[in-house]
Amino acid sequence: MDDKVKTKLSILADAAKYDASCASSGGDKRDSMKSGGIGSLTGSGICHAYAPDGRCISLLKILLTNSCKYDCAFCINRRSSNVPRARFSVKEVVDLTLGFYRRNYIEGLFLSSGIIRDSDYTMEELIAVARSLREEHQFRGYIHLKTMPDASPELIEEAGRFADRLSINIELPQEDSLARFAPEKDSRDIRKTMGALRLKIDEQTDAQKQKTRQPLRRRFAPAGQSTQMIVGADASTDADVLTTSTTLYSGYHLRRVYYSAFSPIPDASTALPLKPAPLVREHRLYQADWMLRFYGFAFLEIVSATDAGMLDLTIDPKLAWAMRNRHVFPFDVNRASYEELLRIPGLGPTAVKRIVASRRWRRLRLEDVARITRSIKTARSFLTAEGWHPGRSLDVANLRDRLVRPPTQQMELFG
Ligand code: SF4
Description:
Elements: H1 3-16, H2 32-35, E1 59-63, H3 90-102, E2 108-112, H4 119-136, E3 142-146, H5 153-162, E4 165-167, H6 175-181, H7 187-209, E5 225-231, H8 238-252, E6 256-261, H9 279-294, H10 299-304, H11 317-324, E7 331-332, H12 338-342, H13 349-358, H14 366-372, H15 376-379, E8 383-384, H16 399-403
Parallel strand pairs: 1-2, 2-3, 3-4, 4-5, 5-6, 7-8
């Protein structure tokens, strides 16, 4: 790699690290062993590596350019930001992706960009990279393209032909915050683009259900669409954040909403907080998000376990809900429904499936459940099993102290 490209790579990979919406689950299973070309989503599969700050690094995650026409206050790449700028050519991104892929450094490409001249021009450049990879180099690896807010429908359609996943960032939980911090962005454009993506993705799902899918035509964005929301840049509560996520999941069928804890950027607007939002807030929001999507909790149930709309940072939201609803427990692991078992703190969907499968053959004892979950110390207060009843342990005043583990302190490596 020549020095010029190396310098660009260091600038444009660094500029991309603030975008958290890069996980790659849900893609088509493609394998170049069968179809020719290079790259594969099977075999070793897509695996995610995370940097210490929690960002996904298994993809080559870069911007085409960090020069942007817009001046969003929360963004390091905004027009007024005093950072070194760089721009890749289409060919440079293609060569880098292929080179890294062949050396097994990456499983795919995550490509975003600052807005160059306008949304359409930028989108055309992003598409040119994906088209070249797919059509000229038969690249079968994963591609995630960022969609520009008001790009034309034809370009979005074309992007979806080449990309596994498309995403457009909602940026902030509330529309008035977006208007304040990113006045050149219009939340209606963002939602319009999300709506267009949803229609295309749904069209294809319907066609698949009716088995009208053309075998040679590539599916439109098979890994669906996702978005990212920055938390802690404005005064939105966790309840506000989850309200927006719920609307996005139901209204636009997003595969994922990614939460990114705000971290201050150089020369930031004085309207932005000086301190970063705690990363644990991001973590709690992900847990609440999972409760909504995979545990059958209703939005209002989660919000009912918050204080003034904020999730408790010291315990996970499912435990917070259980402690406020002790009267519904304990559930009998040998009789409770799948949905009830999912409400027991310490039991996730995998553990619950195993419990339901095992109890067909015998009545489960606490030791059997302990073999299924590592969180038996928490779970046992909320369940009954053959020969086990938690007694009045849920009634004790210091239940929280007994269940909440003190934060572990990492040992010093050279202490
Ligand atoms: S449009 Fe995107 S890249 Fe440009 S300043 Fe706003 S958030 Fe940053």
